[in-house]
Amino acid sequence: MTVNRDELLELEREFWTGNQEFFAENADRECLVAFPEMAGVMSNAELAATATKPHRWRNLEIKLQGIVEPGSDIVMLTYEAKAIRDNGEPYQALVSTGYVHRMQGWKMMFHAHTPTGTDTGKAKS
Predict the structure, then answer these.
(1) pLDDT band at residue 87 under the 50/70/90 scheme
(2) Which residue ranges form the domains of the chain, and what is each CATH number?
(3) Measuring CA to CA, which residue among 53, 62, 98, 112 is closest to residue 83?
(4) Does residue 101 have a pLDDT over 70?
(5) What are the φ and ψ backbone dihedral angles of 73, each rounded to 5 degrees?
(6) How far apart are CA 27 and CA 57, in angstroms?
(7) Residue 121: which region, alpha, beta or left (left: phi > 0; alpha: psi -120 to 50)?
(8) Which branch of life, at top level (predicted)?
(9) Other CB atoms within 10 A of residue 84 CB
(10) How far apart are CA 81 and CA 58, in angstroms?
(11) Which residues have CB under 8 Å from 102's CB, separation 6+?
């Protein structure tokens, strides 16, 4: 199966901005996550519960760095992301996401953020 990059990047954008329903529909039964503030295996319901208003993003920019298909039903992608948190704080990270293809379509099964720094645009005191 050849993956549609645009389809996966749209899923990625929605995972940054989507609600709990989107997460529940598009994350696999279990997902391995690695963030600075949390790491481990999360169930679909646990992951969906993280998609609340304080965790949403805006002005998202994604710059794809690489994509591989190690199997006919698995794809991994890495990209640079820049976004603004709901509270106005800028955020930059190198992000990797793994998807597995199920009968219902691509499901996120791995997601990791490595913060690369932020540019607040504010004068330093």
Answers:
(1) confident
(2) 5-115 (3.10.450.50)
(3) 62
(4) yes
(5) -125, 15
(6) 18
(7) left
(8) Bacteria
(9) 14
(10) 11
(11) 28
Helix (H) or strand (E) holding 22: helix 20-26
- 24, amino acid identity: A
Answer yes or no: pTM beyond 0.85: yes
> Is the distance from CB of 66 to CB of 97 less than 8 angstroms?
no
Q: 104 vs 28, 93, 100, 107, 110, CA distance in Å?
A: 10, 29, 11, 8, 17
CA dist 57 and 69 (Å) reads 28
Query: Does residue 71 carry a pLDDT above 70?
Result: yes
CA distances from 61 to 17, 56, 85, 98 (A): 12, 14, 13, 19
In this predicted structure, the answer to whether residue 55 has a pLDDT above a threshold of 90 is no
Parallel, antiparallel, or unpaired for β 105-115 and 27-35?
parallel
SS3 per residue for 31-70: EEEEECCEEEEEEHHHHHCCCCHHHCEEEEEEEEEEEEEE
